[in-house]
Design brief:
Leucine Aminopeptidase, subunit E, domain 1
């Protein structure tokens, strides 16, 4: 029997979603901040930062388009994948490729860790200023392509979208791809 991975869009708080892996829209220094990053680090507790320091040292860093993992602390997940998306600088600085890479690398980390489910926020759509329609299209296209290339590794991808405008952008992008 062939399994077909599914993609879900839900509006809500990613810190409350049960999944094998939760993706954090992290900053390059892997420190606290606003938005999803701050919410995940607060909800997960000090174990997340302690695990990041144990794995990567105090001078830890993650470049845009890349991702690293940590323990999930008090979150309803096994691991947190800290993905760094690009800051929007007008679209002429490789932003699309970096955003797609952040999703692909996160999926790869989840697969290596044996995760069957993963929850993503809308990476780079908050303080990093990525245009919602473009970010949603890149996220959905990248995830679908990755799932098609490696069926069976991950069964469920959930995009957990905090605000109504972000949810609508992802719904419109999903409708265009169907």
């Amino acid at each position: 029997m062939t399994r077909h991975p599914s993609i879900r869009l839900v509006r809500g708080d990613i810190t409350r979603v049960a999944a094998d892996a939760i993706v954090n829209a992290a900053n390059p220094s892997l420190t606290g901040g606003a938005g999803v990053n701050g919410a995940i680090l607060r909800a997960g507790g000090p174990e997340i930062v302690a695990d990041l320091e144990a794995r990567y040292g105090q001078a830890r860093r993650c470049d845009p388009g890349q991702a690293v993992l940590s323990a999930a602390g008090a979150l309803p997940a096994r691991i947190v994948i800290h993905a760094v998306g690009p800051i929007w600088r007008g679209g002429d600085h490789g932003e699309d490729a970096l955003l797609a890479s952040a999703y692909r690398v996160s999926l790869g980390v989840a697969a290596v860790e044996g995760c069957r489910s993963i929850a993503f926020p809308a990476i780079s759509c908050g303080v990093y200023g990525y245009p919602l329609a473009a970010a949603a299209r890149i996220a959905l296209t990248t995830v679908r392509a990755w799932l098609e290339d490696g069926p069976g590794r991950i069964d469920l991808v959930t995009f957990v979208l905090f605000s109504e405008p972000v949810m609508r952008a992802f719904e419109r992008a999903a409708d265009r791809e169907d």
